[in-house]
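Researcher: Quick sanity check before group meeting.
Model: Go ahead. Protein one:
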Amino acid sequence: EATERARRGEGPTLVEAKVLRLTSHSSDDDQRRYRSLEVLEEEKQRDGVLRFRAQLEELGVLKPGDAEEMRAELVRELDRALDEAEAAPQPDPDTVLRHVYAEDR
């Protein structure tokens, strides 16, 4: 429905997508303490990203090795961005609240 609406040029549509949470809430959280391994494995099999990848491969849109190559490229890009961020000078502490609140007029 949202796709057809967009194709007709009727503007944006908010799509609410309910997805599985496949990882813990944070690095401090271990969901295995309150979720069974059986449930976690079952949900992993329903991973929308992996299912979409399989569908693209089945349709011939994604060739063997493409996904791994894309992943490797993304990891390299993230590593470069991390290196750049870590090499950047520390910001001036006086600017910490800049652009946090609306400016007085």
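Researcher: Fine. The other one?
Model: Protein two, sequence then structure:
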Amino acid sequence: QAFPAELLRRAYAAWDGREVTDDGALVEMVGGSVLMVEGSATNLKVTRPEDLAVAEVLLDLYGPVRGVQGV
């Protein structure tokens, strides 16, 4: 999931404590939209230690993605 930072800040600022499942649900609560876009098998979510190991292998194979904030 990815959202414009300002939209996500606004959603968290407006959060009333109701249970939400993820950032997408929170964004929808403030009128934002959640869309699905085509992705890539190499764009993975790192949640567990084994996910990090896979990400490190991909980084070794392909190198960092240039132009991406934080890289």
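Researcher: One line on it for the slide.
Model: The chain has a mean pLDDT of 87.
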